[in-house]
Design goal:
Layout (H helix, E strand, L loop, with lengths): L2 H17 L6 H8 L5 H6 L2 H19 L12 H17 L7 H10 L5 H26 L6 H21 L1 H7 L9 H24 L1
């Protein structure tokens, strides 16, 4: 990537994550990047083009570092795959080094969507959802339930994603409420809990559908 473009993306990621798309200014981004204010128009057309590039770069960097299967082999079962997916999701939104603003930026976009969200859904979110729904669907079929499989799979997948996201979007509330022995940075413990909770929920949902 061109050095100026890379500096703009890094600077813009920090500004967008802190201020949000609407409040961020091209002038502040260029000042932080140490480039002329016209560089945004030259490389990205406008602020929205820069924002879209930042979202794409952020997601690609995070998924490359923490792929949804975390390198599991083809023989891994659905329970192993689900735990790996949850752990990789938490690492992408909570890890401070991929870059540090990734989780906050994505949380902002989900909570206060911009016109770029549709592209993010199609290019970034949908492939992850397809992978997760494949895992959930396999587990539901193992329980012998095929009734309303598509809608049940969707709801189960959204419940898993919602639990993961809450550790980012609800971080301040959780910090205020947490018991003394809970560390919000303990990704392994959070992964184990969400995986266990989700496995039980998927099984119970499948059994209810079968009944």
């Amino acid at each position: 990537m061109d050095r100026t473009k890379a500096r703009l993306i890094e600077a813009a990621g920090e500004v967008f994550a802190r201020r949000g798309f609407r409040s961020a200014t091209v002038r502040e981004i260029c000042s932080r990047a140490g480039v002329h204010v016209g560089a945004v128009n030259y490389h990205f057309r406008d602020k929205e083009g820069l924002y879209t590039a930042v979202l794409d770069h952020s997601h690609q960097t995070a998924v490359k570092k923490y792929p949804p299967d975390l390198g599991l082999g083809e023989r891994a079962g659905p329970e192993e795959k689900l735990r790996a997916f949850i752990r990789s999701f938490l690492l992408r939104i909570l890890d401070e080094g991929i870059p540090a603003w990734h989780g906050k930026l994505m949380a902002r976009e989900i909570a206060d969507p911009t016109p770029a969200l549709d592209r993010v859904v199609q290019s970034s979110i949908r492939p992850l959802y397809t992978y997760l729904s494949g895992i959930v669907g396999e587990m539901i079929r193992q329980e012998g339930s095929a009734e309303r499989e598509e809608s049940v799979t969707f709801l189960c997948a959204m419940s898993i994603v919602g639990q993961c996201l809450h550790h980012s979007t609800g971080k301040h509330v959780m910090t205020a409420l947490r018991p003394a022995d809970f560390d919000p940075a303990d990704i392994e413990r959070i992964t184990d809990h969400i995986a266990c909770f989700s496995l039980g929920g998927i099984r119970e949902t499948a059994r209810a559908g079968k009944a």
